[in-house]
From TrEMBL:
<feature type="transmembrane region" description="Helical">
    <location>
        <begin position="146"/>
        <end position="167"/>
    </location>
</feature>
<feature type="transmembrane region" description="Helical">
    <location>
        <begin position="377"/>
        <end position="396"/>
    </location>
</feature>
<dbReference type="InterPro" id="IPR011701">
    <property type="entry name" value="MFS"/>
</dbReference>
<feature type="transmembrane region" description="Helical">
    <location>
        <begin position="90"/>
        <end position="107"/>
    </location>
</feature>
<keyword id="KW-0812">Transmembrane</keyword>
<feature type="transmembrane region" description="Helical">
    <location>
        <begin position="113"/>
        <end position="134"/>
    </location>
</feature>
<feature type="transmembrane region" description="Helical">
    <location>
        <begin position="179"/>
        <end position="197"/>
    </location>
</feature>
<feature type="transmembrane region" description="Helical">
    <location>
        <begin position="350"/>
        <end position="371"/>
    </location>
</feature>
<keyword id="KW-1133">Transmembrane helix</keyword>
<feature type="transmembrane region" description="Helical">
    <location>
        <begin position="285"/>
        <end position="311"/>
    </location>
</feature>
<keyword id="KW-0472">Membrane</keyword>
<feature type="transmembrane region" description="Helical">
    <location>
        <begin position="20"/>
        <end position="40"/>
    </location>
</feature>
<feature type="transmembrane region" description="Helical">
    <location>
        <begin position="317"/>
        <end position="338"/>
    </location>
</feature>
<dbReference type="InterPro" id="IPR036259">
    <property type="entry name" value="MFS_trans_sf"/>
</dbReference>
<protein>
    <recommendedName>
        <fullName>Monocarboxylate transporter</fullName>
    </recommendedName>
</protein>
<feature type="transmembrane region" description="Helical">
    <location>
        <begin position="60"/>
        <end position="78"/>
    </location>
</feature>
<dbReference type="InterPro" id="IPR050327">
    <property type="entry name" value="Proton-linked_MCT"/>
</dbReference>
Length: 473
């Protein structure tokens, strides 16, 4: 079939926005429950173990940094690995490796093996599967993307709300090793999710397309040797004198790839996208995401020990973490209901709003010593976390676009890793030097607030600049 005949076809394949996409939502839910359902309970699970091997606040934040760097590495290599492996095979490797990291903790008796199992092995696997899960949801959903994310995140939040109570029960009944085996058993359920992760090309939906005009068809070159798509004839778009050699070179850049380049060179070029590097690293988008995740990770890691230092008992600490999950769940449930009305609201706006809510909740927890009041603000903090978790992939997709989502997510995760490994231990050192969780939390809150204001200013400036450009046009 010639190129012009292809242009005359009546239908085009688009994302299903439903159908098997809902099975992908189930797969995403299982994976997120298995991999991140116990994140808020990390301090509850490992608090006594880390104290036994001599971990202080600096060592804990250094562990967070190693985990973040490993996650960044796993997320960054996702896009290149997709050139040589299918998405399902990559997910299977990630699930099995993650479970291996959990099981090996049972044999750990010192700091370095603990860094390796939790930080390196689990972190790398988490980054790989995390990127793949969001990429697949983005492929299956376009118009209903917010609804899909809300369903997945809400179901995960239900589990996260009860996870601290489950951990407390497992510790009292089976001890530390029994708890680790329980976490491992939950993580293995991701094998079911891998089986559900079918390629989106199997389930594309046919929709009627608008026919091209004759003028548009004239501009298309019917190049049978070119497998990557139609080529636009440069001579028909410009009156500039151009030689046939220049046209061939330009056509190669637009419609084809350099076939003399090795597959390794092509993978490296696809990994380091110059446009993405400029748009992310020179803006507050990636930095704001990285700093907000650092703040959330540090707070969740420190808060169990901080509450113990305030005189709280184990039951109250477990209840506080459960209420964080309840707030997260309540927020995500609201997004399911309100998803239709939020289509015109920018993902960056909602992410910044969630960051400010979470900062306000943390400050309020510090300002009130009453246990009941603090528990209420734990719920508010969970609502703020809901914004961060739900809109993080949507912000990246909004800036990078669906085709470059895995590369964009990889770059953001690299930055998150660098920020965590460089800045995370600083907050741990502040805690060890001052012997005060309050001072550490205040400095952390001030940092997050400053970045949220900077991000807001940049967002307003870019929108005004875009509006002025459109008005001039």
């Amino acid at each position: 079939m010639s190129l012009k005949e292809k242009c005359d076809t009546k239908y085009v394949l688009v994302a299903p926005d439903g159908g098997w996409g809902y099975m992908i939502c189930i797969a995403g839910t299982i994976i997120l429950i298995s991999f991140s359902g116990f994140v808020s309970s990390f301090g509850l699970i490992y608090n006594d173990f880390m104290a036994g091997i001599g971990f202080g606040s600096t060592e804990i934040t250094f562990l967070n940094g190693i985990t973040a760097v490993s996650m960044a590495f796993g997320g960054f290599i996702t896009s290149p690995l997709q050139k040589i492996m299918s998405m399902r095979k990559l997910a299977l490797v990630g699930v099995l490796t993650y479970n291996l990291g959990i099981i090996l903790v049972l044999f750990v008796k010192s700091a370095i093996p603990f860094y390796t199992c939790v930080g390196v092995i689990q972190g790398t696997s988490f980054g790989l599967v995390f990127n793949l899960t969001y990429a697949m949801i983005n492929e299956y959903f376009v118009e209903k993307r917010l609804l899909a994310y809300s369903i997945v995140k809400t179901t995960m939040a239900v589990f996260a709300m009860f996870a601290p109570q489950l951990v407390k029960y497992a510790q009292s009944e089976y001890g530390f090793k029994g708890t680790i085996l329980m976490v491992s058993a939950v993580s293995l359920q991701s094998l079911i999710a891998v089986a559900l992760m079918q390629p989106v090309t199997w389930h594309m939906k046919k929709v009627e397309k608008q026919p091209l005009t004759e003028e548009t068809k004239v501009l298309l070159v019917d190049d049978k040797d070119n497998e990557s798509g139609p080529i636009v004839k440069i001579t028909d778009l410009s009156t500039t004198n151009t030689t046939s050699t220049d046209i061939n070179e330009t056509s190669t850049k637009i419609g084809g790839t350099d076939r003399k380049s090795s597959w390794l060179v092509q993978i490296l070029k696809s990994s380091f996208d110059v446009t993405l590097l400029k748009s992310f690293l020179l803006s507050n988008v990636a930095w704001g995401i990285a700093i907000s995740i650092l703040g959330d990770t540090t707070f969740l890691t420190f808060i169990p020990a901080a509450l113990y230092s305030y005189g709280w008992n184990k039951d109250n600490v477990a209840l506080a973490l459960s209420l964080v999950g309840f707030g997260d769940l309540a927020g995500r449930g609201c997004f399911i209901i309100c998803s239709k009305w939020l289509l015109n609201v920018g993902s960056q706006d909602l992410f910044i709003a969630g960051l400010l809510v979470s900062v306000a909740a943390r400050v309020s927890i510090l300002c009130f010593s009453n246990v009941t009041v603090s528990l209420v603000f734990m719920v508010v903090y969970g609502i703020g976390r809901c914004f961060l978790a739900l809109f993080l992939p949507m912000v990246i997709c909004e800036v990078a676009g669906t085709p470059k989502f895995t590369a964009g997510m990889g770059l953001v995760m690299v930055l998150m890793g660098c920020v965590n490994i460089s800045c995370g231990p600083i907050f741990g050192a502040i805690r060890d030097y001052t012997q005060s969780y309050d001072i550490t939390f205040w400095i952390l809150a001030a940092t997050l607030f400053a970045f949220s204001i900077s991000w807001t200013i940049e967002l307003v400036y870019k929108r005004r600049q875009r509006s002025n450009t459109e008005n001039k046009a």
